[in-house]
Design a protein that fits this description.
With 364 residues, this protein is an alpha+beta fold. The protein has two domains: 107 residues, Phosphorylase Kinase, domain 1 (2-Layer Sandwich), CATH 3.30.200.20; 187 residues, Aminoglycoside 3'-phosphotransferase, Chain: A, domain 2 (Alpha-Beta Complex), CATH 3.90.1200.10. It has twelve helices and eleven strands. The strands form three sheets. The chain has a five-stranded antiparallel beta sheet with strand order 1-2-3-5-4, with helices on one face. The protein has a three-stranded antiparallel beta sheet with strand order 6-9-10, with helices on one face. Helix 7 crosses helix 12, helix 9 crosses helix 12 and helix 10 crosses helix 12. It is globular, with a radius of gyration of 23 Å.
Length: 364
């Protein structure tokens, strides 16, 4: 369902306006859309929307954003020169591209109303949903930019209350870079940032990083493995097998924590589409999952974008070399092996909390 924002638009030939009563007997080119249209019309008639409906899926939101962007650009002696384009929109973010007199800039919005809160379940009306494990990204980026000014996106403007921000164009994403040695340099720089961040843990918490250290992950394992929605795609045997692994996963949390590698800044979604290359510099963006946890968790995500097993091992060793002040390489390799399964659990918890906070139409 789209919101028409073009005043000159007219229906195409053969189109007709219908209400819910007429919809029931109307022949549709795509019959499967009938239920979706009916739901939309019902919401309009009742003037009520689901609790988890995102702001950017509501009428009038785009107009308010466009007005805010124009106002912020005016302060920067800049202006919009082409229609605003929607780059991405789903249950946890909306990204717009704005062509201006000074080039492309990007607008991003993330949820605020249910961030870190409990909201009633739409199914039962009484059960509680899980909090969305999101940092306040605009504020977090500004704080991280103090520590890493060369490696953070430039925030041109932000609205703290609505969690909106305007950012300059980052450059080319890492995965598009033909020079594969850039992967090594990007991972090395990220490791250096994490090592430096071990001296600023309190600052990271104040900045908005969530506390997702290993003792917290341990406490999240039972709720994760008891969540029927999370396990809905598994058969009975798979669910039983997974649940029997809970004691082992908890023990692994203790075992990983026994190594001297400190828990520190974790990006939380460090795939090669969230790193941009600017000349010889690297910009790390999309910090909604930013937290303090085990640093090796980020490497698991990064290496998912590397197909060659030998290259994966090389990149792993490049990254681990940043941590030899804490443990010898042999023990770092042991810790890394432990961390990879727990990294998957960490990501599963993130997914569990996201899915608990989006409409069913955003889960497909």
């Amino acid at each position: 369902v789209l919101e028409n924002r073009t005043l000159t638009w007219t229906p195409s030939a053969g189109a007709q306006w219908v209400g819910r009563a007429a919809l029931a007997d109307l022949a549709l080119a795509i019959p499967g859309q009938r239920a979706i249209i009916d739901t939309c019309l019902l919401e309009s008639e009742a003037q009520a929307t689901p609790l988890l409906r995102t702001p950017w899926s509501k009428r009038g939101w785009f107009a308010s954003v466009e007005s805010w962007i124009q106002e912020q650009l005016a302060h920067l002696d800049n202006a919009i020169v082409a229609p605003i384009e929607q780059v991405k929109s789903w249950g946890i973010s909306c990204i717009l591209r704005v062509l201006t007199t000074q080039g492309n800039i990007y607008f991003k919005a993330i949820p605020t109303s249910f961030m870190h809160e409990q909201v009633p379940s739409s199914a039962s009306g009484s059960a509680e949903k899980l909090p969305l494990l999101f940092a306040h990204e605009p504020a977090l980026i500004q704080s991280l930019a103090v520590l890493y000014p060369r490696n953070m996106p430039t925030v041109l403007a932000m609205d703290r209350e609505r969690c909106w921000m305007l950012q300059v164009d980052f450059g080319t994403e890492l995965y598009k870079n033909p020079d594969k040695s850039a992967f090594e340099r990007a991972l090395r720089v990220h490791g250096q940032m994490q090592v430096a961040a071990t001296q600023h843990i309190d600052t990271l918490f104040v900045a908005g990083c969530l506390d997702r250290r290993l003792h917290i992950l341990e406490a999240q394992i039972d709720p994760l493995l008891s969540d029927e929605d999370v396990l809905s795609d598994l058969d009975t045997g798979q669910v039983a097998q997974l649940r029997t692994s809970a004691p082992r996963l908890k023990a692994m949390c203790h075992q990983l924590a026994s190594y001297a590698v400190p828990q520190t800044l974790v990006h939380g979604d460090l795939h090669t589409g969230n790193i941009a290359v600017q000349a010889s510099n690297y910009i790390y963006f999309d910090w909604t999952d930013g937290c303090v946890s085990h640093p090796f968790f980020d490497v698991a995500t990064f290496l998912e974008n590397v197909d060659d097993p030998s290259e994966r091992m090389h990149l792993r060793d490049v990254y681990l070399s940043q941590w030899t002040d804490y443990e010898p390489m042999a023990r770092l390799l042991e810790a890394f092996q432990l961390s990879q399964m727990l990294a998957a659990v960490h990501q599963a918890v993130s997914y569990q909390h996201i899915m608990s906070n989006v409409e069913s139409t955003s889960k497909a």
